[in-house]
Amino acid sequence: MANLNELELQNLRHLIGGHETCATKLDTYAQQCQDPQIKQMLQQHAQSARQTKQQLMSFLG
Questions:
Q1: DSSP E strands: which ranges in the chain?
Q2: Predicted pLDDT of residue 1
Q3: Where are the domains of the chain?
């Protein structure tokens, strides 16, 4: 892994936080949703956001 400068590190943390927020909101929306197709779509997008967050976190370690 290449060394990250301060700005890159801040941007990466911002992206990670954004994906975490997005996943949390999508999970909340899915729990409140009555339509099974929309519920499934929201859950899939939440899972995708969590996977992207994990990929981004790999750059920190």
A1: none
A2: 52
A3: 16-57
- The pLDDT tens digits for 36-56 are 999 999 999 999 999 999 999
The residue behind tokens 């976190």 is 57
Q: What are the backbone dihedrals phi and psi of residue 13, each rounded to the nearest 5 degrees, phi first?
A: -60, -40
In contact, 42 and 26? CB cutoff 8 Å: yes
Residue 59 has pLDDT above 60, yes or no: yes
**Residue whose tokens read 């990466």:** 12
**Spatial contact of 60 and 19, defined as CB atoms under 8 Å apart:** no
Q: Is 12 exposed, middle or buried (0-12, 13-18, 19+ CB in 10 A)?
A: middle
Taken in order 47, 48, 51, 53, the sign of the CA dihedral is negative
